[in-house]
What we know:
By secondary structure, the chain is mostly helical. About 80% of the residues lie in helices and about 0% in strands. It is elongated and about 70 Å long. It is found in: Cell inner membrane.
Amino acid sequence: MEHTKKYVDKTLEIITVTLFLLMTAVATWQVLSRYILQSPSTTTEEFIRFSLIWLSMLAAAYVVGKKSHIAITLLSNKLKHTKKLVLDTVIQCSFLVFAAVIMVYGGIRAVSLTMAQISPSLSLPMGLVYLALPVAGILIIFYSCCNIMELLDEKNKFNEEN
């Protein structure tokens, strides 16, 4: 599982960095075409908006995998090892349930409802934009499962030592 996680991490890193660089280049082109060439591009703003949605969803999944998400550590800092592991497991299970219900199930519903809608500038089905939700949800479920397995391994090692 560790090998698969590293592969998914590397893939997400490449995708998000490439998407960010592409967004930067397109935004630069937008500024140049608008202010220097006096002929603004009609598709760049929509492309950047849709790319930002995908970038933020994929980056959110990556952050869950790295356990670097925003956290309020007031309670967890005061807990001893076993209780802290239980709290961390509950948090990861919450991520898993949220991702499954809201992001995957709700995202699939949003994709199916919006696939017939076409974006004005790029002429893309809007369902492709909303597809970022279930894709990120599946990645968060994967990472949460990996994190739960790591927590269980850590608990087993702690129990063996004591």
